[in-house]
Amino acid sequence: MQFMTKEEVRQACPVAFEKAPTNPNLSEQYQHADTETIIDDLAQLGWFPTKAMMRKRRKSNTIFSKHMVVFANPDIKITGSDEVYPQLLVTNSHDGFNAFKFHVGLFRTICSNGLVVSTEDFAQFKVPHKGYTFDQLREVVTQVVEALPEKVTVMNKMQERILTKEEQHDLALQAILLRSGISAGSTKHDLEVDQNALNEILEPIRREDRGDDLWRVFNRVQESMVDGGFTASLRPGKKARKIRSIASFEKDLKVNQELFNYASAMVA
Q1: Distance separating alpha carbons of residues 18 and 261, to the nearest angstrom
Q2: Is the distance from CB of 219 to CB of 203 less than 8 angstroms?
Q3: Distance (Å, rounded) from C-alpha 259 to C-alpha 116?
Q4: In tens digits, what is the pLDDT along the chain, a chain of 268 residues?
Q5: Residue 1 lies in a domain
Q6: Which pTM value belongs to this model?
Q7: Which of the two ends of the chain, N or C, has the fewest CB atoms closer than 10 A to its terminal CB?
Q8: Are the C-beta atoms of residues 100 and 38 closer than 8 Å to each other?
């Protein structure tokens, strides 16, 4: 687990350090809370940045750009067959109209990809800019830590659930649908997926990922969706091509959340 200094975060995501938006539509009562404040306050609680990114814009003024900083606590990890660190993924924009959003993730050290946990009972948290306080942030972190045993239970159930070949192919297929912008389980689409593409997605990259349990199969599929590298067509009627990695952190979040929801439902 590698942590970033504030200067490294600034280089990767300079908009996070903007001190005040210049939006003329904001009320005089608006209280700006910049992302740097969150970085400093989370450090007091033992959480430090591991990744930072921002939405790319063609216009020169990016002060309002949506951005995300990912945090982890070196003293909080889940040990077992895998070493997993809980993560806080903080998204923000300095347009004066959005709250800080905290998504919860799990970082699996052997594959360097973070999956986003998003279930109905463990949804994203929001902290509004207006009236932001350190106590609010501490409450969010407390809720995240208190809910970790439940997430460990889900992971254990996924490790115990052995998938048939058909179920593995279905999970890979649903992942392609999600990557294409189609809801998982949807039958109203014209996307044709080659069997070779499914096999490519399911192929283990490393020894630790070999196995037919849901946890390992899910991680193989999730890594393929994030990093690309498999050959498929993501649009009806289009020729199959080598799929690139997801460039947008917003799409990454969306695909991760929906794929985890679909996979975790398979343990029921």
Answers
A1: 35
A2: no
A3: 9
A4: 789 999 999 999 988 887 766 555 666 655 667 889 899 999 999 999 999 998 876 555 555 578 999 999 999 888 776 778 888 888 887 666 667 888 888 887 766 666 566 544 444 567 766 667 889 889 888 888 888 888 788 888 999 999 999 999 999 999 999 999 888 888 777 788 889 999 999 999 888 889 999 999 999 999 999 999 999 888 887 888 999 999 888 898 889 889 988 998 998 7
A5: no
A6: 0.83
A7: C
A8: yes
Q: Are both 101 and 209 inside the same structural domain?
A: no
Same-domain check for residues 219 and 122: no
**Is residue 132 within 8 Å of residue 92, measured between CB atoms?**
no
Domain co-membership, 141 together with 235: no
Tokens of 38: 């969150």
Cα distances from 249 to residues 56, 91, 136, 212, 253, in angstroms, run 10, 10, 25, 29, 6
Largest CA distance in the chain: 60
Domain boundary among 105, 120, 148: 148
> Considering the domain boundaries, does residue 73 fall inside one?
yes
> Range of 198's domain?
161-267
In a domain, 155, yes or no: no
Burial 2-28 (b: 16+ CB within 10 A, else e): eebebeebbebbebbebeebeeeeeee
Q: Where among 93, 127, 148 does a domain terminate?
A: 148
Same domain membership, residue 231 and residue 165: yes
Residue 258: left if φ>0, alpha if ψ -120 to 50, beta else—which one? alpha
* Residues 108 and 215 placed together within one structural domain of the fold: no
Phi-psi region of 229 (alpha: psi -120 to 50; beta: other; left: phi over 0): left
